[in-house]
Amino acid sequence: MGLFDVHAHLTDRRLAAREAEVLANARAAGVTTIISNGLNPPDNERVLALAARSDLVKPAIGLYPVDAVLTEMEAMGTDYKRDASFDPEEALQYVEDHVDQCVAIGEIGLDHYWVPSELWDLQEQRFRRLVKLAMEADKPIIIHTRKAEQRTFDVLVEMGATRVNWHCYSSKVKLGMRIAAHGHWLSIPANVRKSDNFRRLLEGLPREKVLLETDCPYLGPEKGELNEPANVAVTAGYAAELWNTSADAVQAQLEANFEALFGFAP
Ligand SMILES: [Zn+2]
């Protein structure tokens, strides 16, 4: 039992280049489980390979909401930097073919920030297919959404998805509270001290609905600093302050929350 990071990108080349050091730092900080999230087929493949060689890492495989319609975005002439080549249909098939090998489906979701409105329906069709797959396989879902939080929530409620974690939820605190009241979890990143929204969520959410994440290498506690899973310890320390309780009590609560969603102890 220990601390955990439910949303990391250890396969990002900046972290992958320092894999042994990053994992050693996490262990030293008391982290026992890191869920590395996949973005597209080549990344999913790297996530599964990494999980196979490290007991600390558990794989989530998915299709990043922008990647889900990237081929169509490129055909429209949208300027978005692609980091891998794949066909959307093959990307969905990859997740379907490997669902038994992962502990969660993620990251998946809806992104209305980067994706033009003409493609929102198609993006949602592909998202629904992955949600359905997760529900049929009884796997938790890790959600990324940007400027589409309400729509994402409506789809998940309509489809009856209950094992859901919202990564880096950044819309209105009020909707965040409704999401938690509906039974979903929200993971708070390591830059919480600098974000009014994340602080209010960490303070106000039902404690049994809080999880920790880093989204590393992004969203470091300090600007410009490369983030890594060890930084969840910073967030756990801050939760103890905000909740006015001990570090042990925070860790016990978080462990129980993790197990309630993922079905195994962190
Ligand atoms: Zn992510």
Give the key terms.
266 residues; alpha/beta; TIM Barrel; 8-stranded parallel β-sheet; 45% helix; 16% strand; globular; binds zinc ion
Description:
With 266 residues, the chain is an alpha/beta fold. It has a single domain, classed as Alpha-Beta Barrel (TIM Barrel), CATH 3.20.20. An eight-stranded parallel β-sheet has the order 1-2-3-4-5-6-7-8, with helices on both faces. α10 crosses α11. It starts with a strand and ends with a helix.
Count of separate structural domains: 1
Q: Which fold name corresponds to the CATH topology? A: TIM Barrel
Spans of at least 5 consecutive residues with low confidence = none
The percentage of residues in β strands lies in 15-25%
Level-1 CATH class name: Alpha Beta
Overall pLDDT confidence: 96
Class based on secondary structure composition and strand pairing? alpha/beta
Q: So, the CATH homologous superfamily? A: Metal-dependent hydrolases
Query: How are the strands ordered across the major sheet?
Result: 1-2-3-4-5-6-7-8
Distance between the termini: 6 Å
Specify the biggest β-sheet.
Answer: 8 strands, parallel
Helix content: 40-55%
Count of helical stretches = 11
Instruction: Name the CATH architecture.
Output: Alpha-Beta Barrel
Q: What is bound: which ligands?
A: zinc ion
- SS elements, strand count: 8
